[in-house]
Amino acid sequence: MLDDRKAAILRAVVEEYIQTAQPVGSAHVARLGDLSVSSATVRNEMGVLEREGYLAQPHTSAGRVPTDKGYRFFVDSLAGPGQLDPARTQQVRVFFATAHGELERMLSDTSHLLSGLTDYAAVVVRQGAEAVRVRSVQLVGLVPRAGLVVAVLASGAVEKRPVDLPEEPTAGQLGSVSTHLAVHLVGEALDRLPAVPPSGDPVVDAVVERARAALSHPGVGADQQVFVGGAARMASAFDAVHTIRQVLDILEQQFVLVTLIRDLLDRGLSVAIGAEHGVVPLADCSIVVAPYEIEGERAGTVGILGPTRMHYEQALAAVAVVSRRLGRALSEGSGER
């Protein structure tokens, strides 16, 4: 733990470095805030902070810059995610008031909204459909021996699977199939659909079982979908071309992104700084993530990827607001899909 003076000096260095990207000197820190100490005292305290791993000195006689440990202290000392400024708050309000259409389009647009709010690359992950609960289900007859089972999920996604029919069912039997499926499958997770008890009609039971089996089989929606917005913004966040290339390469690798985000949430992290996330090419990056929920169930994740010299309060505020509003919008709209 740092005493109050060291903590104040460290926060001053972090805030100044975030703003300027230039090493911060003791004389400048002494003029900031209400420290009421000399630059010599600040210089001595900064030396202690450097020895303890909170600050680093890139060059002899240069000022100090925060380390990952310094940023971690700064983030952990924040009172909360903060508030978006009025202009950004209005931008979010207008977006979700007018955002409609297919789920995939909305998630993609949300990633661009979040990127615009923060000036960092933004990621929206839709949880794999197989883990989401069924909201409604029905069987549609296409031709005499073929049908389509359609399930609307709690996430708002729609899963469609073809079903080969054992024989040509009547319209009444098709209706009974849909009713029987709805009674026993609505509310169940797509990857854990229970066996459906018999209805007493052999044709209905045969079609119900084929429809249930079709839904249980992993489909296109089984994989988590990743939507990345503002990747080009990363080019202005780093000076080294090699770093930019590495970051852009990771953004293109959806599996790596999904695994990284899942690992962070499993560890209870909403912010991972530098080497904390364990992905070497992103050692100069921080990640801020938050899950979004639909009717109380986790449906995916939103997050941003930027340099460790990140505006953390603004980033946390934007991710918190967007994740909350996205979940609310999808919860309200899922019944209409």
Description:
- This protein is 45% helix and 19% strand.
- It has 337 residues and is α+β, with helices and mostly antiparallel strands.
- It folds into three domains: 4-76, Winged helix-like DNA-binding domain superfamily/Winged helix DNA-binding domain (Arc Repressor Mutant, subunit A); 86-127 and 224-334, 2-Layer Sandwich (Beta-Lactamase); 130-221, Enolase-like, domain 1 (2-Layer Sandwich), CATH 3.30.390.
- The chain has a five-stranded antiparallel β-sheet with strand order 7-3-10-9-8, sandwiched between helices. Strands 4-5-6 form a three-stranded antiparallel β-sheet. Strands 1-2 form a two-stranded antiparallel sheet.
- Strand 1 and strand 2 (65-66) form a beta hairpin.
- Helix 1 (4-20) packs across helix 3 (39-51), helix 6 packs antiparallel against helix 11 and helix 7 (171-185) crosses helix 8.
- The longest helix is centred in the last third of the chain and has 23 residues, at 312-334.
- It is elongated and about 90 Å long.
- The model has no long low-confidence stretch (mean pLDDT 86).
SSE order and pairing:
Blueprint (H helix, E strand, L loop, with lengths): L3 H17 L5 H6 L7 H13 L3 E2 L8 E2 L1 H9 L9 H13 L4 H16 L2 E6 L7 E10 L2 E8 L4 E7 L6 H15 L16 H15 L8 E5 L11 H12 L1 H13 L4 E3 L11 E10 L2 E11 L4 H23 L3
Antiparallel strand pairs: 1-2, 3-7, 3-10, 4-5, 5-6, 8-9, 9-10
Helix pairs in contact: 1-3, 6-11, 7-8
Brief rundown of the structure:
Helices cover 45% and strands 19% of the residues. With 337 residues, the chain is α+β, with helices and mostly antiparallel strands.
